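Pipeline run #58 for the internal structure catalog. This entry was flagged by the ingest filter as a single-chain record with no existing model, so it goes straight to prediction. Upstream metadata was stripped on purpose; only the residue string is passed forward. Reviewer on rotation: M.T. Logging verbosity set to normal.
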Amino acid sequence: MYVPPAFRDDNIENIRATISFARLANLITATAEGPLATPLPLFLDAMEGEQGVLYGHLAKANPQWRSAPIGEALAIFMGPEAYVTPSWYATKQETEKVVPTWNYIAVHAYGPVEFFEDTQRLLDVVTRLTNIHEGLRAAPWSVSDAPADFIAAQLRGIVGIRIPVTRFESKRKMSQNRPLADRIGVVAGLAASEKPRDQEVGLLVPTLA
């Protein structure tokens, strides 16, 4: 990922927040047959390893886990994103020398990938993943709510993923390279959007001189 200095974000708390926000990641591995990619939920265990460890699972029928990876795996997490029209810039009225762009937050996590079929490890992963996404519901569903034999059968159809993170690349592109008047215009434009995700991005654009 190309990350100009103005958009680089090494704040580990911001990185972890983006991973948590994204929920669905893209797991990419390079193989002798070419690159393979799978959209899937991953969670970060920040207490394990130096940079944390990512966990998730694939369907056993997915060929990605059977193809030996070349080098490290890449997990991509996208945060809030929105189109930015140059019509919002004060600079447009001054010079007309403006173009559209996109504001977004993205985290790339790299590390060696391990695929595993151990039942207890799989049960731990699916339980933790379920608890993360059910936790805020008024009546959260639990893996233990389903019959044990049914869960055991489901576990036989998946393969676990473990990625000890060796490095993060994080990009936070929120108009911070624009003059203050342009940023204020972006915030106002995004706030007026009918799309909640646009409004969310507007709250992240810095407006202090």
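catalog note: The chain has six helices and nine strands.
catalog note: The radius of gyration is 20 Å.
status: ready for reviewer M.T.
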